């Protein structure tokens, strides 16, 4: 024992092991999925640990040894080897290091041999326990190599390699063919496995490093997501099911009551006479051909399992048909007149209607309508959020018991059923938060049908609707003032057809993501913020409505100020007069019934106590420059930015930028307002907080902008900026900055050097940091140019005061809280630079003609003290843009970026050559969010196994809105900008764009004849960064001839004008995508770029082309045979 003790003492004198091998082993994780448990290295550990610096450190250990290899592998050779390892073989290095971490010679020679053999991580695992065959140009002496790679070392490498080759799981891949030696990154949970005839199912936890595209928090599915084609097919199939149910419910003799029907192709048809055999729950069979009008049939067990899907070539969803009629029941007499009532619960519990629980009650054909309501709701959830969303809904419906339950529940303390709270909450959440369900869209109308007519407990008055046999009227449902009754199959079918009749309305099948719909603004009673001023609490509310005849209202308006105000707001937008008008109050707003936006607002004074929840606030906002106005601004900013606040709604607003702008204006204080321009890299600044100004420049021809230029002006401004020479907008910005107790201000024309020798190009790349790092952005929404200012007096607003006796008053005024009109559709937001400035800002104060607004990640606040929220507007107001936009499905994400670019393409510029620069910050964030590269409005995801963003972003077309020009105009970029925007980017042109979109999940993207410019279509491209000014797409150009085309068979959209090439050649095409619906290429629809050759051939002998348009046509018109012409599109 003494010898062992002395040995341990000597060992303790050895330095601690901080080697890379030790670091790797420390990161090992154990998987208990296999027996015995096996250790593995999580996927993210290798790129984090096996860096070039650490590789060089391991290889450098050879210098510590007395070995001739030090001269054979000097520093330069080891550095070159380390570079190769880092780029191509980090896993091979980590495995080799584990085999013998103490032998530096073995490690260096082993990796040198791997380099000679061109054996890299992509060739792992090493199979058959032997080294790979060397390439012909690098033959090797097996005896020499075997001195390094002995059989024992090879066996050891093969055993240890599995620790670094643990699979990663992704929703993009379904099948995995893995070798027996593979280690699974699973941790078995303490749940009894389920054993079946063919295998065992375990519940496991997957290591987060080995699952991509998944999250521990529920998010909607990434793909396929809602798209026009899928939504249309879903509603068409639901209409078909409703039609089949209508026919089933109205059987008459050998035909249905409604004999004629219209097929999907518009032809008339007849439902044939067929005898139907039924088997009731008591085992009795009946051949049924009904002879009386009072006879009918119900299905009785409608559920997804009893709806068959027949796949076809023309649709992705297929054809849905009702099946499994075993439980269908024949109604010999009208349901409500039967004396022998149904008592057996025979349907699937989850989809059964509430009347199934009424033991003395009948079950009518409307039982099936309830089941269809359940199925339709699940269809909507699946369309929006995929299988994950549907599973989430199921789990919530099951509750803690985790047992399937119905879509209804019993009202507490009452003997009546109501729609299940989980179902009500999901419907409400979708209507309020999902843009596909909250606007004028097909899914919104479909969800309304489910809520208002299908998932309705009460049956019509001529049907049994209570526990008793008598006919009674049912009470209203929870939170409703009137009783709704369940629809019939015919009514469901008619409503679905009404939805289909509106399919051609733009944006109806899929929401338009460009501007937030006016009707979707939510005005919430927000007394928490106002209570900081009033110290009062909000009250409970109740709804009220009233109707009036316009003649009577106008007559009373002569003597009543409130009636006068009602009459004024009742005038239609086109100026015409209504015959009658109805008003309803929603919280603190009065709306005209049937119209989306409030016309009157109600406010209570701070001391008033009203019997309903009315917003604290001001009917006439404070005037600009007043103490009250700036007190509001300071409170908004403090509430949003205070890190000690317990208001977690502003967490995302409190992030800070990593850098400060190159230059800032020191505005001093109110008492000492000496202005000077500060170079932040040269001079010490007092703090890093600053305000940024977003403003219009105006017409530079009539009023040259106030700006900084290099030389004397810059040096003078660093000493003093002459306040008296500043335009009014800049003076107002300085005054606001001082009143908000902030020392520094950023204004683009002053802080960026203008002119040919300025630094605009360098500074424009920093706009993302400038606006995201600002403490606040001031938006001069009122101003038309630098000379206008934004703190001038505003028009006062009329209001009516209501007061009874000694009670405190409340006020009614015309609604002025209209962020949509004042800001989003305002003149400042039509300026190209402002879109990026708004999206990147953490918080913004907007100065408009009506009032001042404050926007941050928690919504929009008004000077009236109203709080507003809109789902689409909040995406641009997201302080961590584009986090909120990325929460949707993949289809929604794509639709969002397309909508954003469509909006941006229609904005105005003083200098249109700014177009690529004014959105560069947003573009960078979108690329990071999508995990892609790219530029100029084009995403390059060619290095991903499932791409498509590159192709979709290429398929832009000239805008087709009424306000769009017939042709786009090329932008002339001056040489000093040192930028070349390629012809295949819409940023090379002036004008609005739209997108030519293949339906989701229906296109095969071309990858062999269309190579992206950055990734070159490969995961690791060595030439992925083209030289500046030479961004090109490699493509195969093909001829086409559309002679003999049919109407609507071909569509071409030319960017500028239809023209031939410079050498007189005709327009040719490049294939971007082809639809999957047809088997043979000549039948398929091809999406193409239209191109023409330009004069010039590259050094590699490749012809140069430019894009002139986009379109689609059947393959029969394209010359698909042959190799085509290899080309580069510039």
From TrEMBL:
InterPro entries: HET, Kinase-like_dom_sf, Prot_kinase_dom
Single GO term (MF): protein kinase activity
Superkingdom, natural source: Eukaryota
Signal peptide location: none
Sequence ranges assigned to domain Protein kinase in this UniProt record: 91-478
Identification of the protein by name: HET-domain-containing protein
